[in-house]
Amino acid sequence: MKVKITAVRKTEYKDLMKLYENPIKNACDVKVGQVFISENGEKPNDLCSSAWESMEKFVKELSQGGGNFFDGWMKNEKSAMISCNDGFRPVSFYVEVIDE
């Protein structure tokens, strides 16, 4: 099954960045509205590896016909809302099955 991964929100915690982060040259390149497609539970080539680590188990479960995470957490049981693990500039991704 194919799973669509859509970046729906991106934020920055500038106060935390100022306190704790060393300056970096290349921060997250993901844009809100950007879409990635996972086929058979595989990582899309252009998706950030850090974001993939956060969502991999959900995408793989959905691609194998699973869902209903945490007993009714999502209105669409064949979906999940996952944030990447960047504590300074997290991106929220809506992950959903697009074919069955």
> How many β strands by DSSP?
4
Return the domain count. 1
Helix content: 10-25%
Strand order of the largest sheet: 2-1-4-3
The 3D shape can be described as: elongated
| C-alpha-based Rg, rounded | 14 Å
Total of helices: 2
Structural class: alpha+beta
Average pLDDT taken over every residue: 93
Largest sheet: 4 strands, antiparallel
* Proportion in β-strands: 25-35%
What letter string, H or E per element, gives the SSE order?
EHEHEE
Give the low-pLDDT segments: none
Give the distance, in angstroms, between the N- and C-terminal Cα atoms: 6 Å
Query: What quaternary form is this?
Result: single chain
Structure commentary:
The protein contains two helices and four strands. The radius of gyration is 14 Å and the shape is elongated. The protein has helices spanning 14-20, 49-63; strands spanning 2-10, 35-39, 79-83, 91-97. With 100 residues, the protein is an alpha+beta fold. The termini are close together. It has one domain. It has a four-stranded antiparallel beta sheet with strand order 2-1-4-3, with helices on one face.
Short description:
The chain is α+β, with helices and mostly antiparallel strands. The chain contains 2 helices and 4 strands, in the order βαβαββ.
Fold blueprint:
Elements: E1 2-10, H1 14-20, E2 35-39, H2 49-63, E3 79-83, E4 91-97
Antiparallel strand pairs: 1-2, 1-4, 3-4
